[in-house]
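go over this record:
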Amino acid sequence: MPTPNFWIVRSEEELNRHRDDFTYRVIIKPLLSHQFENKYNAKHFRAENGHEVDEAFGKVLRDGIEVIVVERIPGRDDQLCSYYTYIDERGEPQFHYTKRMVRRFPAGMGMGVCQQTAKDLPEVQELSLKLFNSTGVKRLLNTEYIRDRRDGKLKLIECNGRFTGVNRLLIESGLNINLHVYNRLTGGPPVPLDDYRDGPMFWDPTGDLSAYLVRRKNGELTLFTWLGTLKLPIVLPVFQWDDPVPSLIDSGRFLGRVVNKIGKVVGLTGRPKLGPRKT
């Protein structure tokens, strides 16, 4: 499988042994993501050179967090693409589905805030089935690739054996994988997964607005260009007319973050809290 170069580094000795092998830029990536994110509020560290590798590795080594050094594949966010399927007990894929990324936030490392169902990615399907057939794993599966601008090849950067955050995009495209998995577990009737619609778009309005504002500031995107990338039908991450409560909760959290940021700007946060009333 075409993948980024990577090096397992557990000590300063191993770091020095691999130092001349690193192909910059690299990512200092945790083996256990939740530990890293809880400690640093980040998914990984980036390093442009040996000095930055030493600085990042010294930090994680002191904190006892295991990492690997991974080559960062150069390519725009819109060069990311994914494949989904369900491999049954006979090793047969029950459906094929592909999508492409439009934007992430933050760019180059964040969550996908605008993604679109796309049928014109046969290479992604071919590579993924090659991987799954070689491992023999049987379940709901997802792979993600980025096209390396240096050699034009797709490089595998992620593989998941679970539902993902864009699950509704598959459903709205015509693949009810939720019901498919549920019926397999409970003995229900088979769910037809023969075909899906090309073009539905998953859109996170708040995340994509942030992505647009940063790109506009950097001169990468205009308002009309940004709006021109949004295509109907649009699938929202949470909102549904027949089940609005999760969306209301999510909106409340977003407004809370906005109010907190405004408070920091005007100096209303960071003050000592009042203690309990004494009687």
